[in-house]
Design a protein that fits this description.
Strand content: 15-25%
Radius of gyration: 20 Å
Helix content: 25-40%
CATH architecture: Alpha-Beta Horseshoe
Largest sheet: 8 strands, mixed
Number of helices: 11
Order of helices and strands: EHEHEEEEHEHEHHEEHHEHEHEEHE
């Protein structure tokens, strides 16, 4: 698939006080994109569309260039200690994505240009933790790789952590546009992860993302560039013949990586879950989705901030975890399974 290009760009005036903000404005002007000014991303108006669904789809092609005002980082367990905020929003249309509800009525994409402020805050968190390693997740609220060919914010962040003694970076992507990141001076401090899934899940629930083969080719490049590599199998979804579907996933993954330089490989396993608010939003935005969200078939699990989610029942989750762990062990015996959740 082609790299993302926004159809509409908004710029906060304060973003132009930073070199990255000015550079992006100049870049998009040369590309002939429509550029508007907004005092704040909360004041974005005028996204075209005759109804809410059309406006939602157009918002996913809208980029807001601004500054990150809140520099208190959220926690990001179990993948990292903190989430580092480089961008918010995603150009993909994954039906199951939790951003459907966390971004609510603001599904447009935001990129933050005050990187120096963000890096300074990250360094402060590292210093607070003393001799402990502090990991930062860059993909909690966006698919940063899908945007970075335009901004290079992620590349700058990789090189910042490449110079850090106790700080480490990690992120996950469904996009293959990684070529500009291959020569980054990462010094082994960044774990580059790809989201992978069975053919059924990618075909039915992940429109607007790179194909599985494109992701595999990108993973080969990343491994050969010396990055610590990881795969997130998520969401693990119990579709018809799911065991065969996920077995084939690991077969294809192993075949793709057999001639690469992978020597530090991790897997993270995440079962499908949904909340009641997400179910309503997904049904509205993707009315023809095949995503199973029957609350009677699930177990209710309390989450952060008192918002519960529906996960698979204990026996199904146990079967799922044991099955996928067995596949990892068979095809990648030296890899680490970081967690199942």
């Amino acid at each position: 698939m082609k790299p993302f290009v926004p159809q509409l760009v908004y710029i906060e005036p304060k973003a132009l006080e930073y070199s990255l903000g000015r550079d992006l404005k100049e870049k998009f002007e040369k590309m002939g994109l429509e550029i508007k000014e907004t005092t704040s991303h909360n004041q974005v108006r005028g996204i075209p569309g005759n109804n809410e669904l059309q406006q939602y789809r157009n918002a996913k092609s809208t980029l807001v260039i601004g500054i990150r005002k809140t520099l208190k980082f959220e926690t990001s367990k179990p993948s990292a200690e903190y989430a580092i905020p480089l961008a918010t929003g995603c150009m993909g249309h994954c039906h199951y994505c939790y951003l459907q509800t966390t971004l609510g009525s603001k599904p447009y994409i935001r990129t933050y240009v005050n990187l120096e402020d963000i890096f300074a805050q990250a360094d402060a968190y590292i210093e607070e933790r003393g001799d402990q390693i502090t990991r930062f997740e860059a993909a909690c609220t966006s698919d940063i790789v899908g945007l970075d060919h335009l901004t290079h914010s992620l590349k700058k962040t990789i090189e910042h952590f490449g110079k850090s003694e106790k700080g480490q970076l990690r992120f996950v992507t469904k996009y293959h546009h990684v070529d500009h990141l291959l020569d980054a001076k990462h010094n082994g401090k960044t774990r580059f992860r790809f989201s992978v899934n069975s053919r059924y899940v990618i075909k039915n629930f992940e429109p607007g993302t790179s194909s599985f083969d494109e992701r595999l080719e990108a993973a080969r490049k990343v491994a050969n560039a010396g990055y610590p590599l990881g795969f997130i199998v998520a969401p693990i979804y119990l579709h018809v013949d799911w065991r065969e579907g996920y077995y084939e996933l690991f077969q294809r993954l192993a075949n793709s990586l057999k001639d690469t330089k992978v020597n530090d490989l991790t897997f993270e396993l995440i079962q499908h879950r949904f909340t009641k608010p997400a179910k309503k939003v997904i049904a509205k935005r993707y009315p023809k989705t095949k995503l199973e969200m029957d609350e009677e078939k699930r177990k209710y699990k309390w989450g952060r901030y008192g918002i519960g989610k529906y996960v698979y029942k204990d026996d199904e989750a146990k079967d799922m975890e044991e099955t996928i762990r067995r596949y990892v062990s068979e095809f990648f015996p030296k890899a680490e399974v970081a967690y199942f959740t």
